[in-house]
Amino acid sequence: MLSLPAFRQEVRHEFDRILQYWQTYSPDRQDGFYGRVDVRNQPDPSASRSMVLIARILWTFSLAYEVTRNPVHRKLADRAFAYLRSRFVDPKYGGVYWSVRADGFPEVTKKQLYAQGFALYGLSEYYRTTKQPEGLAEAQKLFRVMVDKAYDSKNGGFIEAFNQDWSDTDDYILSKGPLRKSMNTHLHLIEPITNLYRVWPDAEVKKHTKALLEEVFMEHIIDPETARMRLFFTEDWQARSPEISYGHDIEASWLLYETAEILDDKPLLQKTKDLSLRMATATLEGLNPDGALTYEYNPETGHKNEERSWWVLSEQMVGYFNAYQLSGKQHFLEKSLKSWEFIQKYLLDKERGEWYLRTDAAHHASIDADKITAWKCPYHNARACFEIERRIGRG
């Protein structure tokens, strides 16, 4: 088995390799960052630019500068911040657009809470690293409009999406049909609101951080019997889907514990620790002999999505390591190491850089899938490498 110092060294090398790829191939010479780069690293200058992708680039290079103090990383974080601020922030209604055209003009102007959350994640990390007051100011404005326009004061949590002017819509691209709340959006709301609380310990930010953990996740999203997350909900939190998303479950197992750590509430921290370990243990049902989690499973139909996804492998590497740290159980460490072994063997594009999007169950990589898209970004894999290095470094 790979030693912890060797594990740390290998993921740090991969962290640097990921950053090198993105600093080489993602910046558009004209403005901002490309919205699409193919598997041969050729950009599509005409592709739309997604808020989710730009926010994840902002988060990644902000984190990178904190770690490396490389001025190139600072320059790219500044570039991403300027691009987000000038092209994606809605000056009339507040919040951020879902996407802009390649020329920077608004394209999809709806207010998707998933995109608001990632913008907040990037902005708060940018301020955390650079201490630029403009970064915090933009994060504060975004948080306030999210709470003012999208918070459900009656049932808790946040409504999934709105029209540009924050009026009601029935277009929920991350939810099923007319359902107004989802696990995925709330997972990527607790993540940035927690990050904002790190840099701005405001009472209202703390209130929403704690409410998302205790009321939304512990009372509604996580099934108390199975320790798995339900995926889609009505406005009053009636679950409406049977699917199991193993990748999101293992991701949430460590992100929710991180939230409890930052809140620094000892009883809540112990409660979240117990839950985190239950969640990590529950995912073992979906773990394949090759060390990769099944992407998704529907117990009602028996349908199983057998793809091995780059982002799921990233999150399970961290989630199982977190479970090892919390429990001291060696088998969790072995599963984290086996995740890394799978990544190295099947997902790394050692010739052209970055990772393949997925493999099938027979480990055939998606050699024709784009390297950069609205959803293929540097956040899951760079963060996973950083987290493992950090956790081994602190013992």
TrEMBL record:
What Pfam families does this protein map onto? GlcNAc_2-epim
Q: What keywords appear on the UniProt entry?
A: Isomerase
Q: Which InterPro entries match?
A: 6-hairpin_glycosidase_sf, 6hp_glycosidase-like_sf, AGE/CE, Cellobiose_2_epim
Q: Give the enzyme's EC designation.
A: 5.1.3.11
Q: Which GO terms describe its molecular function?
A: cellobiose epimerase activity
Give the reactions, separated by semicolons, that this protein catalyses.
Answer: D-cellobiose = beta-D-glucosyl-(1->4)-D-mannopyranose
Listed under GO biological process in this entry are: carbohydrate metabolic process
**Uppermost EC category:** isomerase
Function as written in the Swiss-Prot or TrEMBL entry:
Catalyzes the reversible epimerization of cellobiose to 4-O-beta-D-glucopyranosyl-D-mannose (Glc-Man).
Belongs to which family?
Answer: Belongs to the cellobiose 2-epimerase family.
The molecule here is called Cellobiose 2-epimerase
